[in-house]
Design brief:
It contains 8 helices and 9 strands. With 279 residues, the protein is an alpha+beta fold. It has a 5-stranded mixed sheet, with helices on one face. The protein has a 4-stranded antiparallel sheet with strand order 1-2-3-4. A hairpin with a 5-residue loop joins strand 3 and strand 4.
């Protein structure tokens, strides 16, 4: 049985990831189970929590601790008391709440110089929804107590990137061993600082016959000349980082780039197609 916290139980019920069921009645069962249901997951495994049928108060429970705590529960008789489910039902927000939200978003965009479309981003909306969920559980909080330090964000982004890369390695290995795929690459130079960059993107069809693409690298090009040999060395090192080590399977790789002489020479002997738009 997974160890849940009360907060996880509340969110699980809200999101439909957990559900309630009537406890199986036995001749020796306590009468308390006429007022309580068990909370279970989608695999119908017990979570270690039960819920009052009348007021929907949630209690931690296991058979070892017994039902004494449940028996001591005094279910409120006041029908006007809000139930826990009232906090996650759809509500019509008053105009003033929307006006305040709009004002705060305008302030955020102006003070931090963020694009207007930031509120349409999936990541931003998921973050905002999670903040609302946390507030509904813990009440009013100070943002300085909740938000992590920028260094913590930096460390966790690196960890998340490593996890995504590890998963992608497995996916690409299977894809290229079976059918192969294509890569696109380009180089550009920052006009202001004169720093050169190189990118490599993989394109493939997954097991559901969906076209997928993933940027494998968009990084600073080494401080060397942009020769064919140097370009090829950098790109092959990127492939090695994803366990796509150049070997006999290279015939399953197709590279698409512009028609620059150094790129054409870099892929000499490999499956290379000049980009039609750059011809």
């Amino acid at each position: 049985m997974q160890n849940f916290t009360l907060e996880q139980i509340v969110l699980g019920l809200k999101k439909g990831e957990l559900k309630c069921q009537e406890k199986e009645k036995k001749s020796s069962s306590s009468e308390v189970w006429t007022s309580f249901n068990e909370i279970i997951d989608m695999q119908e495994q017990l979570t270690g929590f039960v819920i009052c049928i009348n007021c929907e108060h949630i209690f931690k429970y296991n058979y070892k601790s017994g039902t004494s705590t449940l028996k001591r529960h005094k279910c409120p008789s006041n029908e006007k008391q809000q139930k826990i489910t009232s906090y996650w039902t759809n509500k019509n927000f008053p105009t003033v709440a929307k006006d305040i939200t709009t004002k705060k978003i305008v302030d955020f965009v102006c003070k931090d110089l963020r694009p207007f479309e930031i509120i349409s981003g999936q990541g931003f909306r998921e973050f905002a929804q999670e903040m609302i969920n946390i507030g509904s559980i813990y009440g009013c909080l100070q943002v300085d107590d909740l938000f992590p330090h920028p260094t913590t964000i930096s460390r966790n982004i690196i960890k998340e990137a490593d996890a995504v890369k590890t998963s992608l390695k497995t996916t690409l290995k299977d894809i290229f061993e079976l059918v192969g795929g294509a890569f696109t690459s380009d180089m550009w130079t920052d006009d202001y600082r004169k720093i050169s960059y190189i990118s490599l993107t993989v394109h493939y069809i997954d097991e559901s016959w969906q076209m997928k693409e993933q940027i494998l690298a968009a990084s600073k090009f080494p401080d060397v000349r942009h020769t064919a040999d140097n370009i090829k060395k950098v790109l092959l090192n990127i492939l090695k980082g994803y366990n796509l080590v150049p070997d006999s399977t290279m015939n399953r790789y197709t590279f698409v780039t512009d028609s620059a002489a150094n790129y054409i020479s870099a892929f000499k002997g490999l499956n290379h197609i000049p980009c039609f738009a750059h011809r």
